Amino acid sequence: PLLASAHESSCIRLWSIQGNLMKELLPFSEHPSGPLTALCTDIFTKILLAGSKEGHIIRWNMASFLEDSRNRKNQIKEEVSWRAHATEVVELFIEEEKNVVVTASIDGSVRLWHAMSGYYFGYFGQARMFELSDTSRLILPPDVKDFPAIIKEESKHMERKKIEYPLMLDRDK
């Protein structure tokens, strides 16, 4: 078992039950997600989802990391991110049987998304029924203009690095 904490700096920290820091995650995306406001995992803790103050959802695959967290080759991979709401995400959960993510925002909307791709299915209260089997229709809610960003495996994930900026003039450069 492990604990996850979300922070205003967009960082997620994974902790052991003993309180030791195991890993720090930063989202890898073009647009900064902003402060994180919601976290959830699937029942086996292989998928981690985070919601942000700016309305983004980020999905990580933690399966290989959880198998052996000491092996440096086993990384947590960010797989997809998408803009789910125009305002802050206050709650989210994954429904594994139907493979959907449900998100709620401070704007009062509750929306349904495909868990693997981030495709929009609709919102609670709409007149038409949800069509969960068709993920080929690229529709978006009216207040969101960006399609989901699939993160390629070869992308370098951002990790905090200590960088020093000495205040000295280097005439050779």
From TrEMBL:
Q: What is this protein called?
A: WDR64 protein
This protein's superkingdom? Eukaryota
| Domain spans labelled IP5PC-F beta-propeller | 27-114
Give the matching InterPro entries.
Beta-prop_IP5PC_F, WD-EF-hand_domain, WD40/YVTN_repeat-like_dom_sf, WD40_repeat_dom_sf, WD40_rpt
Q: Which UniProt keywords apply?
A: Repeat, WD repeat
Which gene is the coding source of this polypeptide chain?
Wdr64_1
Q: Where are the WD repeats?
A: 82-113
